[in-house]
Amino acid sequence: MKAGSNLEKVLEAGHFAVTGELGPPRGNNVEEVRHKAGYLKGIVESVNITDNQTAVVRMSSWAASKILLDEGLEPNFQMTVRDRNRIGLQSDLLGATALGIKNVLCLSGDHQRFGDHPEGKNVFDLDSMQWLALCKKMRDEKKFLNDKELDGSPEIFIGAAANPFGDPFNFRPMRLAKKIAAGADFIQTQCIYNMVKWREYMKRVVDMGLHEKCYILAGVTPMKSVGMAKYMAKFVPGMDVPEEVIKRLTDAGKKNAAAEGIKIAIETIQEMREMKGVAGVHVMAIEWEHRAKEIIEGAGLLPRPVVD
Amino acid sequence: MIVGDSKPLEEILEMIKDKKQVLVLGCRGCVTVCNVGGEKEVGILATALRIAVKKQGWDIKVGEMTLERQCDPEYIEELADPIEEYDSVVSIACGVGPQFVSERFPDKRVYPGINTTFIGGAVEHGVWAERCQSCGNCLVHNFGGLCPIARCSKSLMNGPCGGSANAKCEIDPEVDCVWHLIVEKMEKMGRLEELAEVWPTKNWLTSRDGGPRKRVREDLKQ
């Protein structure tokens, strides 16, 4: 055991894991965090707390993570390298783990040009790969980047993200291998809609034996509407939404599009459960936390296992 | 100008050790002016490499050439014939040079022979200093003609910080506190009052932070 987090225990025990996601509010509205957390309690192993996602300023991810802990949920503390240099990153990791946070997800972060403060400077002192390696070093060697000893080291289950649909496609499995070599214990992927391409990606990943070196959680996001599907297909970088998904939602009619989106998500999860190398799913019901249960239950994944 | 520093000879030797024909390629632009990558420096580096290669007992032919500029495809094209005799190039232009050369000649290995350090000027003979960070939105006229973005270690626009002592920066007693200089200059010009105003946050979109930059002049495009 590296951190003894619930997520780690469930994966170690060989269960098909489920993680959720919660976006902190654009203000210090604690109730909003608690409210959203309520929908996810008991239906997932742990919950990703996004770090100023899409570069829009929100309540800090470590603080929202702490609120989740207090509510009896386990957070996956997301940390991007966009806004903090090596001093800030290491310091925040120490602070977060001191508060009891055990899962950390190391990310590059969307460029600030996408967000609500596009005029800002970017940091990117370390990249996500280097930050992964540093998290591992701080945990395993109990040292800072500069090799100085830590006075108390973080016990963390280290996560990373992967986008199987980013270009160039051929390089993606190799980049995943790099993240694992750098220190990733688990991987959460970008939302998957193109199952043909995903199967090809996973085949290569399994051929490389990467699924045996870390836990791969497939990303699933339910489509709320045709508009959302079209927006994601067109404007979200590295997102692959096939025409057939848009067609299914369109054919369902405006009234039933959301239900169809949930149905697609359930089918996707069921397919993931049968797929070699997939250790679980990461259900990102963005601003739709109250529908997460329907999806997870629909996929036959409730109740969640309890591992001591 | 763009100012550079020669890479250590050992580093260049390590790059070329398994090559057979190496062309040391200079540039008559900025790097000639700052005495790091012009025709003279091509000669010096090529000679040093030949001596070192001979000493190591390696079989490497070292050639010399200097282009008018390495940041312009028109001049890079002059390499088309001569480069045939080489398997690799050590460019001692700024970082643009190795990229333009390897883009035009994808089969050749192109190595950087210098480190590009900053945009600056000669402050005395043999001494160059940083003056510009190419933030893309010049404001020097507001600060007595001194750039706080490039010359303050914290890029403060409302300095000096508490670390300024004896007109020097807290990072190094050799480094001038540009804010000390700004205050002095503005005072001398009778403009000190202007510094009372709080400078608002800067828009860094025009700087590297906004992503790689490109300049398009429609009137000049063919």
Brief synopsis:
With 308 residues, chain A is of the alpha/beta class. Chain A has helices at 6-12, 30-40, 61-70, 86-98, 128-141, 172-182, 195-207, 226-235, 243-252, 257-274, 292-298; strands at residues 17-22, 46-49, 75-80, 103-107, 157-162, 186-191, 215-220, 280-283. At the A-B interface, loops of A face loops of B.
Structural summary, described in words:
The complex is a heterodimer of chains A (308) and B (222). Chain A is of the alpha/beta class and 308 residues long. Chain A contains eleven helices and eight strands. Chain A has one domain (6-298): TIM Barrel, CATH 3.20.20. Chain A is 40% helix and 14% strand. Chain A has an eight-stranded parallel β-barrel with strand order 1-2-3-4-5-6-7-8, surrounded by seven helices. Chain B folds into two domains: 2-117, Response regulator (Rossmann fold); 133-199, no CATH class. The mean pLDDT of chain B is 96. Classes of the chains: A alpha/beta (308), B alpha/beta (222). The A-B interface holds A 111-113, 118-122 and B 201-205, 207, 209-211.
